[in-house]
Amino acid sequence: MNVRLKEWVAIKSDSGDHTKWGEVETMLNMAAERIKKMGGKVELADAGTHQLPSGETVLLPPVILAEFAKDPKKATLCIYGHVDVQPAKMEDGWATDPFNLTEIKGNLYGRGATDNKGPVLAWLHAVESYQATKKIPVNIKLIIEGLEEVGSYGLFKLIKKRRDSFFADVDFIVISDNVWATTTPALTYGTRGSSYFFVEIEGPKLDLHSGVYGGSIQEPMADLIALLGSLLDHTGKIQVVGVSDDVTPLTEDERKLYDNISFDLEEMKNVVGVKHFLQDTKEEVLMARWRYPSLSIHGVEGAFSDPGSKTIIPRKVTGKFSIRQVPNMDPPDVERKVKEHLEQVFSTLNSPNRLKVTATVGAKPWVANLQDSQYVAGQKAVKDVFGVEPEFIREGSTIPIAQTFQEETGKSVMMLPISGHDDGEHSQNEKISRYNYIEGTKLFAAYFYELSLLH
Amino acid sequence: MNVRLKEWVAIKSDSGDHTKWGEVETMLNMAAERIKKMGGKVELADAGTHQLPSGETVLLPPVILAEFAKDPKKATLCIYGHVDVQPAKMEDGWATDPFNLTEIKGNLYGRGATDNKGPVLAWLHAVESYQATKKIPVNIKLIIEGLEEVGSYGLFKLIKKRRDSFFADVDFIVISDNVWATTTPALTYGTRGSSYFFVEIEGPKLDLHSGVYGGSIQEPMADLIALLGSLLDHTGKIQVVGVSDDVTPLTEDERKLYDNISFDLEEMKNVVGVKHFLQDTKEEVLMARWRYPSLSIHGVEGAFSDPGSKTIIPRKVTGKFSIRQVPNMDPPDVERKVKEHLEQVFSTLNSPNRLKVTATVGAKPWVANLQDSQYVAGQKAVKDVFGVEPEFIREGSTIPIAQTFQEETGKSVMMLPISGHDDGEHSQNEKISRYNYIEGTKLFAAYFYELSLLH
Prior knowledge:
Two copies of one chain form a homodimer.
Chain A: H1 2-10, H2 21-37, E1 41-45, E2 49-51, E3 57-59, E4 63-67, E5 76-82, E6 102-104, E7 107-109, H3 117-133, E8 139-145, H4 155-161, E9 172-175, E10 186-191, E11 193-202, E12 208-209, H5 210-213, H6 220-229, H7 252-259, H8 265-272, H9 282-290, E13 294-301, E14 312-313, E15 316-325, H10 331-347, E16 354-359, E17 366-367, H11 373-386, E18 391-395, H12 400-409, E19 412-415, E20 431-433, H13 434-454
Parallel strand pairs in A: 5-8, 5-9, 9-19, 10-18
Antiparallel strand pairs in A: 1-4, 2-3, 4-8, 6-7, 7-20, 10-17, 11-15, 11-16, 12-14, 13-15
């Protein structure tokens, strides 16, 4: 079955450069052909247009909407996946050609092997395995896009547009586009949201020589440092008043989920290269990453950032930070509180400079209900195939797709990863292990079966 | 006389690129020939070698050491100047060819017109004007270099080496390589020194995704912001304990010097584009720029600094700031106090990260004694030529040459600018006005005369 994965990985469907979206379309067509050969009905749905930062408007590659013959007595499962990839070049430090799937010691190396071509093929293989033997126990729909790595342009509008048609009879939506937290299979039931902030301080008309003017100017950089310094204390606690008020309280049931996770704190310290985390126990560290908000200061634009020394007073500087958000925080509410906080601190500086705070439209956090039959079925399927209880995990990073599906369609959404925690998605030497690829395919098949029993 | 300046400006003696130092040598040879034609004795003194950042060792262009026939009864004045220039290209926004001296409405535009080819020629013209009529009233020596704009490589060693030979019989050293503070002629009696600091915080092994790790990591950027934020309060006061202890107290005589300076605070607000300075009065603003220390935060290396957004936790960040120093601050002492301060603040952060503070070798501040006969002579010469009292000014920026001459030779040093405050040295459309060039030449001639009377 890795012959197909080799064919798919060979297509350089990097979506990062819009002038190369032809390769993305080639990849989408190849996936569409495969589904048709399996008897699926495929629509290459128009995803509309997108305006580039340059102002140019470009036509988006289509989105695959596919379905197999329907039995009205069975539950309908919609599977999401994507067939575009991150950029990859040998020069980046790959040990093998990233577009030539190469097996070394049980691992299949190649760009897209785990993110997300491997899992998409695993879903198709699971469907095929039923087709070869008996009737598939659930109705299958597929939504496959080619722009996930750049932000799924056009997809969310399409989902909204097809809510009452393609999605009307869908009972469950499943996504396999993330990784296990450890070596134990997992079900993912939450992702954090995020808002990104730009704090601009504009002062003098022009950059000034610090020798000539230093001491007489209230420097924009000093104002900015004071503002950024007011956001966090050294324990990582966000100092913006009220910003963490809406965090869902931890229940005893939820706390217990963390006990079962085979996360090794000492190993993680070595992997990351830190002497200690901000928290002392495994559970606290995972909760800090998954179920509590965080604030990271990413950098400063407009100040001197090259190696060496330069004695400039920059006239305009923009600090950048983001806040990862968790249920039930509301990004617009967080943005309002952050702006109020920064304006309040700025007012104490008696500065002649101008403050402007902007935020990108925040992505909402997502959390699922573990009582949904999907999660029960997923848990049973993991036990069937791997003989262990799955870990119930969250993602600290933003994966807007789950939240969007849940919000736009009102359906139950689950993330069912089959990728290993060390697969290196987005990195050099991305891989999926032969074990995860094959057992993952079995997991998907078992999941169809368990889901049908519960429906 | 601007024919000669036109010839000199035409030589592209930009010292910034060592592969083009041939042009610098051409310029030095042209200056040497001119001095020889005037009857001067010229040595092209070997300045030694210099190691480039690449590790390559290069031979330095020579330094002109020249002298005219000596009368042991007269005082000996050594004039410093440089004939190299900053880079200049039409594309940078010049209105005229920077290497073709062009007169527009009484201004002579060209690279080096004011910094420093014009003033060097003005000195030679002042000598020539005496030669044409009567004996020059002081003995003249010249030291002219070609690497000022890159840091006078080799010069300071040469000065030390020639202390007991070339400089042995020198009574006064005069430098005309800066600008007036206003439209009134000035004598410059001080420059600030400077130390440049690098505050490196190193944390995780690799840059981390703020979604995945945010909340669990004590981020190097947060540590750095806390450290940088501890350096200054919002009034510009340096918060490092003891760092300002050695600042020479302001005397009433010194305070009075500021009353006479025709600096227009409102105009300066417009030029710089600020609503207010950190100080309220002209005198306070000038003192803040000239006679008190200042601290400027220049930027951060290693954090995200491009436009747009990126959600990285940078693994290693280096904050950069400098402290402008004034008499009697001592750069090594300041550096020690800054390091202690940063280490103390860092210890309160309970951080798993590593702090490393380094400083470049600091340039010392310089201040002259206004009772020196040079300053008395300079003051009289300004009155002779311009009919006004000079402004006694300082430079907030570092001009190491004055301090070096004073320290290495033990001689009296004065800075006697003839360049206008709006000449745009180092900038596009650098110029010297015909007025400043001609009256400046007269000022130099009058200065020779007044100095001879006082000796």
